[in-house]
């Protein structure tokens, strides 16, 4: 790519926005030229707007410290200076949907970390290693919006990244009844231990909205583009998922324990083979943030562990372990994914890279 695409981050002062900013530093394809947040932050430098609320272990890039923050609601001012935007705004869902559509209608592609548009039928919700063909629905979305260039694409919920990749690798064996419990890090709530000291030594057996997302979103990921309807139709086969979602005293890394049945007989060795040899279009395209090996299988009885494995493939890979026969279900296993990298900003960044490689995102 001869010239870098100009990128805006809306919602730049929050934890996910901060993660976008750090991941985009020295990116080979993209350059941050615009940062936007709430009206409260507008007019301040980025360093002033964030103040003492920098939550990422990586230091704030020097290149953005003095950048003046714009008001994310001033859509035209933001859109005029960028080729596309990442969305990480913290607002009510109806307001997010409206704001992201306003950006798309300025012919500015939106790659969103938010959940607001995940169930809009013509908005692709993509894990680049699993369902990149869903980007084909963008032409239907553009027809609805009346755009030639603008659109919205989203990534799925962070918690499903710990187990959905395994289901994708095993799709030929027809996963059916799936029982999953997710043990979710506090950064998934945009918090650190300094801000949330009551989480130390504690668990909370409820995370609003997470169980519905964990049960439903994989079905959209495994769905298909219906050309007649102009939308993505969720998978309506035998796969059913039930879940519990628990907040645990971990900073980064969502763990999942999974029990499942298959529609076809399969042995453990074959299941492991499908995991470690899983390939994807994302890796073949050489996307800057696509992991070389999307899934690793760990044979040790005490793996995966957050401390040892959350940064696998720079936080963009998925770790699976403890695959074994079960006395009630066919098999059970444990999965782990980095929730703010693979599960949030990193996953959205990889989506933008694939959208660029496939020519959905281009310079204005």
Automatic annotation (TrEMBL):
Q: Which CDD domains match?
A: ASADH_C_arch_fung_like (cd18130), ScASADH_like_N (cd02315)
Enzyme Commission code(s) on record: 1.2.1.11
Q: List the keywords (alphabetical).
A: NADP, Oxidoreductase
**UniProt cross-references to Pfam families, sorted A to Z:** Semialdhyde_dh (PF01118), Semialdhyde_dhC (PF02774)
Domain Semialdehyde dehydrogenase NAD-binding: residue ranges = 6-138
SMART domains (UniProt xref): Semialdhyde_dh (SM00859)
Note the NCBIfam families from the entry: asd_EA (TIGR00978), PRK08664.1 (NF006416)
PANTHER family per record:
ASPARTATE-SEMIALDEHYDE DEHYDROGENASE
Q: What is this protein called?
A: Aspartate-semialdehyde dehydrogenase
Q: Which organism is it from?
A: Bifidobacterium pullorum subsp. saeculare
The organism's taxonomic lineage, starting at the top? Bacteria, Bacillati, Actinomycetota, Actinomycetes, Bifidobacteriales
Gene name linked to the record: asd
């Amino acid at each position: 790519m001869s010239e870098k695409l100009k990128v805006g981050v809306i919602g730049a002062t929050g934890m996910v926005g901060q993660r976008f900013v750090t991941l985009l530093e020295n990116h080979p394809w993209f350059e941050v030229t615009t940062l936007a947040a709430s009206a409260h932050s507008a007019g301040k430098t980025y360093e002033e707007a964030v103040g003492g609320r920098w939550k990422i272990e990586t230091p704030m890039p020097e290149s953005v410290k003095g950048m003046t923050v714009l008001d994310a609601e001033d859509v035209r001012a933001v859109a005029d200076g960028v080729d596309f935007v990442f969305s990480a705004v913290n607002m009510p869902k109806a307001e997010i949907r409206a704001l992201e559509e306003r950006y798309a209608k300025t012919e500015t592609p939106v790659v969103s970390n938010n959940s607001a548009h995940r169930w809009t039928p013509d908005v692709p919700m993509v894990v680049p290693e699993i369902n990149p063909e869903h980007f084909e629905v963008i032409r239907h979305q553009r027809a609805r919006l009346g755009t030639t260039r603008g659109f919205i694409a989203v990534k799925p919920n962070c918690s499903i990244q710990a187990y959905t990749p395994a289901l994708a690798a095993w799709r030929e064996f027809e996963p059916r009844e799936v029982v999953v419990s997710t043990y979710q890090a506090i950064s998934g709530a945009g918090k650190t231990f300094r801000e949330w000291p009551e989480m130390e030594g504690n668990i909370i057996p409820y995370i609003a909205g997470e169980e519905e997302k964990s049960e439903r979103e994989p079905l959209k990921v495994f769905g298909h583009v219906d050309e007649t309807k102009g939308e993505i139709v969720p998978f309506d086969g035998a796969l059913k998922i039930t879940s519990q979602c628990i907040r645990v005293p971990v900073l980064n890394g969502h763990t999942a324990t999974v029990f499942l049945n298959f529609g076809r007989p399969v042995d453990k060795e074959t299941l492991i083979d499908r995991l470690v040899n899983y390939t994807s279009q994302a890796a073949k395209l050489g996307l800057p943030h696509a992991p070389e090996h999307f899934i690793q299988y760990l044979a040790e009885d005490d793996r995966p562990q957050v401390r040892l494995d959350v940064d696998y493939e720079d936080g963009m890979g998925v770790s699976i372990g403890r695959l074994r026969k079960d006395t009630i279900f066919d098999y059970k296993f444990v999965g782990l994914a980095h929730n703010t990298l693979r599960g949030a900003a990193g996953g959205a960044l990889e989506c933008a890279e694939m959208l660029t490689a496939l020519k959905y995102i281009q310079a204005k």
